[in-house]
Design a protein that fits this description.
Oligomer: homodimer
Helix content of chain A: 40-55%
Low-confidence stretches of chain A: 225-241
Strand content of chain A: 15-25%
Largest sheet of chain A: 4 strands, antiparallel
Number of helices of chain A: 9
Mean pLDDT of chain A: 84
Shape of chain A: globular
DNA sequence: CGATTCCTTGAAGGTTGTCAACGTTGGTGG
DNA sequence: CCACCAACGTTGACAACCTTCAAGGAATCG
């Protein structure tokens, strides 16, 4: 909650520096469904999504695919792969996307000597971890309706914080198969739940366009068994409002 | 996979430094079921488990509790809370435990100025994230038998890497309720699956003691739908063999 | 010994997955 | 412009898996 002012300033400083680094690079354009690591050449695999969506996945031996995280514009991709030399073979674009990268041979590694930058990255990583833990809690305790509600609300909140939307409508470039892979459901069941939510005038998803019709009911679905997360503090906002 | 030697050495250096810091502190003893943040006073909430197990949880409004990560001896706790001032109210001991902490007022924050240390923490955080993603993939794609198999194998591997066990038996201080909270199942169903695995001579869990009876069959259960994780590389081993 | 927590088991019902078929959309090339 | 193709979406019937409810047994600790 109350991070000391000095630390907070240092975090913000690190963020500004990184923003500048990313901003000064020539953005890279990727088509739908491209593996980031296969396209973007080098740079130790740390990028920032300027536009478009992407996801991190794991292929499973039975041919299924689990999506473990989803990135929206403004998200940094591949900090966790920073210390591995390999390209990002597990990150996939979900839409047309443009990526910014860190210029320089070793990319981020050499920047880590700067305390404000390494603090910022630690903060980013811990945010990502909290996201993973929230998703985990949702999947292990909510039914299909609740999971979809929480996903829709999560994207809504993230896009609002980034000031990419203002209303209750946004574009969701996931197919129903991908939604299933993300929430641990089959495509068939995702489809059924979406239909029932539309019939009940709670939520509509048509042609990759989400419209929240009844916010309160959606919240109660998502929080029926998930905590209100009271300590998503101001710091998250100020820093994440990127 | 192949991290440059220089970077690898720097990571190992950071690890040694941190190990020394932790080693030089007077360890703290906690009983079963204590909230770490409520007991351990200060120190910005970064600790290392010297003995015993702990977990990170989220309380859900319906009274249920989701366990999102489990820590075994040697694990560092609270790096993700490093940048939040609050005590660790979401970490709970699962057994009698002793904790080491970082001496000094601001704990880790001031150590982050050291590049090798901040690299090591970034590495640690990314390892934890991979763990969360593995759990996520398992829960969203495996049935109850598979999830339990994967949990048992995961603990087995982690304890072996730390050289805390050598055989195929270890102590698992979780109750069946907690196993359920961790894997997204009810206690009743955990119990039934454990019984069937015992009947089939695959796995035995009695009085908090796990014995793996048929490793191959357990693996095939866990990997029926989960990837063989081929890129858990040597670096993990050398660094994690702590 | 009592009390609490943990484990065990059965029966019934709900949620989700599987299988299969068909409808729709969007892009490509004749 | 139309025919075609491939990917995506839609729907029904049925089965498997898991939860809920309920009750009783075992272990542990004061």
């Amino acid at each position: 909650m109350d991070i000391p002012v000095g630390l907070r300033n240092e975090l913000a400083l690190g963020q500004r520096k990184i923003t500048n680094f990313f901003g000064s690079s020539a953005p890279l354009t990727l088509q739908v469904g491209e593996i980031v690591g296969a396209v973007a050449g080098c740079c130790r695999g740390t990028y920032r999504l300027r536009t478009g969506w992407a996801c991190k996945f794991q292929n499973l031996p039975n041919g299924r695919r689990a999506i473990v995280d989803i990135y929206v514009p403004g998200d940094v991709i591949g900090i966790d792969a920073l210390l591995r030399n390999r390209p990002l073979t597990d990150v996939l674009t979900l839409s047309l996307a443009t990526l910014e990268s860190i210029p320089g041979r070793d990319g981020l590694i050499e920047l880590m000597a700067d305390r404000s930058i390494s603090l910022y990255f630690t903060w980013l990583l811990s945010e990502y971890q909290r996201r993973a833990h929230r998703l985990l809690a949702a999947i292990s305790s909510l039914d299909a309706r609740g999971r979809i509600a929480m996903m829709v609300l999560d994207f809504h909140a993230r896009l609002r914080r980034r000031k990419l939307i203002t209303g209750s409508t946004y574009s969701l470039p996931l197919t129903q198969v991908q939604i299933g892979d993300y929430l641990g459901l089959t495509m068939v069941h995702v489809n059924r739940v979406l239909r029932s939510l539309r019939d009940e005038r709670i939520l509509s998803l048509e042609r990759h366009c989400i419209t929240i019709l009844d916010l309160d009911q959606l919240r109660s679905l998502a929080q029926r068994e998930l905590k209100p997360s009271s300590n998503t503090s101001r710091v998250d906002h100020t820093l994440a409002a990127d």
